[in-house]
Amino acid sequence: MAKSLVAATLMWLTLAHPHEPRGPAKLPSPLKIIDDSIEALGGQNALRGLKGVVYESADIFHTSTLMQNYKLFKTDRYIVNLGSQNLSFSFSEDTFQHRIDRVFQHSDYFFFANPTLPPGHFSLVMQNGTENGFACYIDGNNNAFIAPDQVAGYADSALTEYLLFQANKFSPKLLLDIRSHKLATQIVELNRVENLAVHDFDLDITVIFDAYTHYPKIIRSFEDHAIFGNTTQDLELSNYAEVSGIQFPHRRMVLYNGSAILEDTTVSRVSVNPTFSPGFFDGLAANETETRSAPPKRIAGYTHAEIGEYWYNTFWGGEYTGTYNNLSVVQPAADLPRVHKLLFLDQTNLEQLVLEFDDSIIVFEAPPHQTDLVIQWVNETLKRPITHFWPSHHHHDHNYEVRKYVELGAKIIVPEVSAPYWKQIPNAKLITFNENKPYIHSDGKMQARFLWRPEAAHSVDWTYSVITTACPSANSTILTYVADAWSTAFPFDSAFARSWLVQASADGLSRNALAVPAHGQPTPLVELIDALAFDYPDLKTTDFKTGGNICLKTHH
Ligand SMILES: *[C@@H]1O[C@H](CO)[C@@H](O)[C@H](O)[C@H]1NC(C)=O
Ligand SMILES: *[C@@H]1O[C@H](CO)[C@@H](O)[C@H](O)[C@H]1NC(C)=O
Ligand SMILES: *[C@@H]1O[C@H](CO)[C@@H](O)[C@H](O)[C@H]1NC(C)=O
Ligand SMILES: *[C@@H]1O[C@H](CO)[C@@H](O)[C@H](O)[C@H]1NC(C)=O
Ligand SMILES: *[C@@H]1O[C@H](CO)[C@@H](O)[C@H](O)[C@H]1NC(C)=O
Ligand SMILES: *[C@@H]1O[C@H](CO)[C@@H](O)[C@H](O)[C@H]1NC(C)=O
Ligand SMILES: *[C@@H]1O[C@H](CO)[C@@H](O)[C@H](O)[C@H]1NC(C)=O
Ligand SMILES: *[C@@H]1O[C@H](CO)[C@@H](O)[C@H](O)[C@H]1NC(C)=O
């Protein structure tokens, strides 16, 4: 049977003329494709007899990022350099149970969370069910911002739903489960090679099969990413080998948007129908945690794209908790009364600036969910449209929701290098600048400059901003908004910080500048200068030079 499908597929692939329309009638039915695959994997009886499986990955487990990368379009940074894990599944008539035991080492990028880079670990159990389902960390956690030994307890509904969905994609019983779903045969092109596939409309996944072995090759799901648009999340399975009469993949990769490898794992051992110790898949008892069990549920405004990025990047801490009532707005400089600093006292992770000019309003940064509240504040308090928006750099914790400003018609201020990135958002209107010509925004009373240099340390498109009056004197305030290169709310990477001081001193930034870190509180720049023992020139506000004379009045 398997052989005949190979023949049919190969015949279809070779005989069909590339320009000839292919009727679906010529393709095998979805059920035939699935049943041939099940046959190749070991047969229905063998798969139905599976009560449990453990995939051990003793050697290679690593994850990479498209959210915190240096370049814009490539994964060039690891989240987890190395690790090991066991993925356990237990199947019964009415319940699907899964457990991840993982030990991992963050990459050096994570100095900002903890410069000692302690190894992380967690045991995360989960089970399905619209009412009784849950996901629970019974040991450790997957959050770079909390101590490794702190037990995170029950996950929120949105993460639980995401985790169960991903676990299901890897389940060895997936093909048996989807036989009863609404299915269609499809041809999916991968790197210009056509592959036979079955789309499952109930789960909204596509299983792509290997033409020769018939094994599932890719389990594809679809995500709506706020920057990339519609993307694919591919679980790519390979190196199948037989264990107890069933073929199991011994390598799994997660490919995002067709090319970026976000996870690469080798399987060192597969155990079939092992004896799990009693309670192996149980969550914590109510007296062992302050967290509460939450059944899997999709939450409006939280896509798999966002949850998946935050979880993979070890930043997911649940839904956004900031509230409008807890918004604190201050003017950090007395002589710049139209510079507003917004901080949510119940979610202090990222502070933003809103600049009010005579004819325009600029918002700095677009973190997910907080953005809705900032837009509401501008609407209710300043009562004027947001005309401009500036992202400090492309990392998604800072700027996942730029599209909300695009939708409001705001122009997006970015360095030329990142224009192709932000153009991924439909209808984005960009104002670009470069090294020689920073963007200067002014109304004759106040000015903001946006400054980029090639090879900034943190990311290729990283920029910072300075704000002062249109024609400052030596003692006027010069504010500088700095994302990540310096943070006061948590540690920072000295290399990123030093690189910024080199740039800032070359730009002529006063050593008396007041820095507004994205993560932290307004702090005199001199504190960073001292912390790094940096020989910083004795510059005053009037010494700023990049973009031309800091006093714009001479041009009027
Ligand atoms: C996503 O894939 C599309 C199509 O290949 C490509 O044009 C785009 O640059 C990719 N985006 C990212 C962020 O990888
Ligand atoms: C995985 O299971 C093996 C065998 O029980 C054990 O030796 C190993 O420590 C486990 N790995 C993790 C990360 O828990
Ligand atoms: C949970 O998993 C079991 C076993 O796969 C399945 O029979 C049941 O329908 C699932 N429940 C839900 C709510 O998906
Ligand atoms: C992504 O796909 C969904 C459903 O197919 C569609 O509603 C949405 O507009 C698409 N988004 C983009 C950015 O193309
Ligand atoms: C929780 O309660 C159970 C019995 O209900 C008890 O055996 C266990 O020791 C308690 N755990 C803690 C941490 O108090
Ligand atoms: C947030 O606002 C609520 C209601 O106004 C208030 O009770 C609470 O103390 C505030 N929390 C913080 C952290 O400011
Ligand atoms: C404020 O929001 C309301 C309701 O969405 C909208 O009608 C109005 O145009 C907004 N005002 C400004 C100045 O953006
Ligand atoms: C700066 O100095 C000028 C004159 O020396 C004075 O008029 C002005 O008030 C000072 N401004 C600030 C912000 O201290």
Explain the overall architecture.
The protein has helices at residues 2-15, 30-41, 44-48, 157-170, 174-178, 304-312, 370-382, 396-399, 402-407, 419-422, 494-507, 525-531; strands at 52-57, 61-64, 78-91, 96-106, 120-127, 134-140, 153-154, 183-190, 193-200, 205-209, 216-225, 229-243, 246-256, 260-266, 269-272, 327-330, 339-344, 347-356, 361-364, 388-390, 411-415, 430-433, 439-442, 446-452, 463-469, 479-482, 514-517, 523-524. The chain has a 15-stranded antiparallel sheet that branches. A seven-stranded mixed sheet has the order 16-17-18-19-20-21-22. A six-stranded mixed sheet has the order 23-24-25-26-27-28. With 556 residues, it is α+β, with helices and mostly antiparallel strands. The protein is built from twelve helices and 28 strands. It binds 2-acetamido-2-deoxy-beta-D-glucopyranose (8 copies).
Secondary structure: number of strands: 28
- Give a list of the ligands: 2-acetamido-2-deoxy-beta-D-glucopyranose
How far apart, in Å, are the first and last alpha carbons?
83 Å
Characterize the overall form. Answer: elongated
Give the uncertain stretches in residue-range form. Answer: 1-8, 10-21
Q: Which structural class fits the helix and strand makeup?
A: alpha+beta
Oligomer: single chain
Major sheet description: 15 strands, antiparallel
Give the fraction of residues assigned to helices. Answer: 10-25%
Radius of gyration: 27 Å
Instruction: Count the DSSP helices.
Output: 12
The proportion of strand residues reads 25-35%
> What is the average of the pLDDT values?
95
